[in-house]
Design goal:
The longest helix is centred in the N-terminal third of the chain and has 31 residues, at 18-48. The protein has 6 helices and no strands. It is mainly α. The termini are far apart. This is Dps family protein. It comes from Uliginosibacterium paludis.
């Protein structure tokens, strides 16, 4: 009897249907994969950037990967709050990410261009989930997505201006 009671009390009843929770969590899993891929790319570039802009890019990349690292937990915890297991392996992220792997050893400005593309890809992933979260009346996910969009679009802009002549 106690086991049945515990199972019944663990049912999720937050005002979002199971179908919508699973679909939103799937979208957030893609965002988590893009975010982790972006984090790893940015940290790699922080370690390996060279050239005349070394100091400014090294510092900028550190600020970006630190912010990205902190976002991973927020995204994963939202997935868990929706009752779904958050992906957490390279293999899962590789399947879910929209960001292509970096090939070779890019030069500093190539790194910047790759980061612009990765920031924009992550923004597109977040934006693609807005309609579903809105239809499901999922304000916490909407808030998370809006914050991520603002950050990725602003970061892409700040990187993009470095590529201008």
């Amino acid at each position: 009897m106690k086991a049945k009671k515990a199972a019944a009390s663990s049912k999720i009843d937050i005002g979002i249907s199971e179908k919508d929770r699973v679909a939103i969590a799937a979208g957030l899993s893609g965002l988590l994969a893009d975010s982790f891929t972006l984090y790893l790319m940015t940290h790699n570039f922080h370690w390996n950037v060279t050239g005349p802009m070394f100091n400014s890019l090294h510092t900028m990349f550190m600020a970006q990967y630190t912010e990205q690292w902190n976002a991973l937990d927020i995204i994963a915890e939202r997935i868990r709050a929706l009752g779904v297991k958050a992906p957490g392996s390279y293999a899962e992220y590789e399947k879910l990410t929209t960001i292509p792997p970096v090939k070779g050893e890019p030069k500093a400005m190539e790194m910047v261009a790759l980061l612009v593309a990765a920031q924009e890809a992550t923004a597109r992933t977040a934006r693609g989930l807005l309609e579903l979260a809105d239809k499901a009346n999922d304000q916490p996910t909407m808030d998370l997505l809006t914050q991520r969009l603002d950050l990725h679009e602003k970061t892409a802009w700040m990187l993009r201006v470095l590529l201008e002549e």
